[in-house]
Structures are given as structure tokens and as C-alpha cells.
Amino acid sequence: xxxxxxxxxxxxxxxxxxxxxxxxxxxxxxxxxxxxxxxxxxxxxxxxxxxxxxxxxxxxxxxxxxxxxxxxxxxxxxxxxxxxxxxxxxxxxxxxxxxxxxxxxxxxxxxxxxxxxxxxxxxxxxxxxxxxxxxxxxxxxxxxxxxxxxxxxxxxxxxxxxxxxxxxxxxxxxxxxxxxxxxxxxxxxxxxxxxxxxxxxxxxxxxxxxxxxxxxxxxxxxxxxxxxxxxxxxxxxxxxxxxxxxxxxxxxxxxxxxxxxxxxxxxxxxxxxxxxxxxxxxxxxxxxxxxxxxxxxxxxxxxxxxxxxxxxxxxxxxxxxxxxxxxxxxxxxxxxxxxxxxxxxxxxxxxxxxxxxxxxxxxxxxxxxxxxxxxxxxxxxx
Length: 382
What we know:
Layout: E1 7-10, H1 14-25, E2 30-34, E3 47-48, H2 50-59, E4 70-72, E5 74-79, E6 85-89, E7 102-104, H3 111-117, E8 123-125, E9 129-134, E10 139-143, E11 148-151, E12 153-156, H4 164-167, E13 172-186, E14 200-204, E15 209-214, E16 219-225, H5 231-235, H6 237-247, E17 258-269, E18 273-274, E19 277-279, E20 285-286, H7 294-313, H8 319-345, H9 348-356, H10 360-371
Parallel strand pairs: 1-2, 1-12, 2-8, 5-14, 12-19
Antiparallel strand pairs: 3-7, 4-7, 5-6, 9-10, 10-11, 13-16, 13-17, 14-15, 15-16, 17-20, 18-19
């Protein structure tokens, strides 16, 4: 009935390919259906947190991600108007993970490594999902290339605009954040401009903030822009220079090698399961970009779901999948969305003082939460 496929996966992004590889390692036959003709090269997620690095090492694909990446050991907060500083060394997490740091690298550098580790033919490109039927025994998907595929389960990892969630009849609670983001790129090493900066910094004044993110080939400066400002006005040279001068006056004349504006959406699927269809990654949740958590949460979805599917395919009760779906939905509803929202909702004037006041235990708790060590394994079957 199923041919050689037990699980169909819609979407060949980092979540879909992670799920495919994790299942393959468990001996589960998978097929990935991807609507594009190849892997996406768009600049999207760029932060890998400690439990994600642990997972990628377990799958044997971390090594290709490390050369040329950026290790971030310390996070800096600073008031640009008063000079007050705070910092947290992520080494405080060394007892809990083999990777007590953040790794900055584009997600487009991860997907080729995942694809290369999969058996040849596991991914079918140019085959977006267009139709779904399911019954008590399995799932059938039809693709844009005219092919039809049958398996015991299907997983939607095809993003927020992907087809499988809608075809399965799962709704999502979605709204756009009021603010958009101006992103500027510079080849200037900002560590030479701002003492105490490692690879991640948050700068504040009385009414606003700027995030600094070191990437392999440049630094990103990220500013929130007012809802009434047009994209064109936000990217205008005069506005960009004014924002730099406000937060980094010593680098006001820096080279700007790239700039763009993007919106931010908040979304949560109302369920992670409909019969034999499950959701993971962007198809299930979208968060504010502050903290770089959404892709990581998707990879954690994939790792916990792979372990659960393996048990169910091996004869364990199907209710384990509902337990997983309920647990991962709770992660997003009760922790991930509130956590990312809180990072942009507070008064920027208070942020540095709040971080500076943390005790050693408080710093460790904050670092665990920021690194997602407390969320990554929720949903893992016991």
C-alpha cells in the first residue's frame, strides 16, 4: 500500500530536511515534496541555539556548518545615552550542553548539508502539494508535477504559506506586528567601535533600540521602524544615517553594503494534528524575530516528532502523536510567543538596568530560556 514510503514531508527547508534525516537515521522511509526547483537561498534565519547545535551534531551535519560561522559567547546590552552596560556569558550553560554559545550562520548553509546526508532521491523538487486525502490507513498527496504519493503519515513543513495545513483543515491565528524592521549590512567590524561587544549586542536609549548581529561576512544592524513610515523612506540614505548616528555615532559614516525592510508576523496553528497529518516549523508557528527562536523551535519540533513517529510506526499507540501535538502547541502558546513578544514590548529605557540587576542564578535562568534549553525536548516521548 505504501511502497517504500512511511512518512511524506511537505517542504525542503531546514525543518522538513531535519525531520527527514532524523527519521532516516531511525530506519523510517521518507519522501520530501518541495514546490521549488531547488533549495531556497533566501536570507532568513541566522541564529543556531545550543540545543539545536546538539541536535545537528547528533544528526552528523554540524561539522559543515562550523567553518566560516560566527561563535557568540557573550551578549551585550548598553545604554547609548548613559553608557550603562550589562552582559551575560553563555558559558554559564556549560554544564547543560556541549555548545554553550550561539552560532551565527545563514539557514541556507544548513539545508545543503541536510540534503547531502539524505539518501539519493529522498527529495522531489518541483512538487508542491496540491491535494490531500486521508483515511484510516494512510495519507495520499498529489503534487504540482502530477505525481501522487501514499504513506502512513504526512507532515507539513512547507512554511506559513504552505498548502498542507489548509488542505488538512487546520486554521491559524495570525496577525502582523505593528512594527517593521530596517536591516542594514556593513563590512565594518563593530567590535572595533563598541568596547565589550562580542557577536551580539542590544543598544538602547530612552525611547528605542538597535540590535547588532555579527555574521560571517558582515554585521547586521536592525532597527524597528514606525508603522506610518514607508519602506522607501525607511531605506533612504538620510534616515539610515540618522539611525546609525543615534546609536553608533562613532560609526556614522560606515559603509552600508546592503539594506532592506521586512515585516514580522505572529502566527500559531490552532492544532498540530488533523488525523494523519501533522505540522512542524513555520507551518505551525511564527514569532517575532528578536532572539532568533522560530527556526530553532521548528528544528526542535522535528527532532521530537521524529522520535514519536518512530515509536508509533513501530507499534506504539497512535495517541503518542496527539500527546506530541498537544505538547508542542503548548510550547508555542505558553512560552515561545510570550517570550518573544516580551522582548519587544517593554520599555527600552529599563532593559539594561534589568539585565544588570540579575543575580548569577538569574543570569543562568535567563540564558537557559534565551537558548531554548528549557523548551527543546518538550514533546519527546519518554
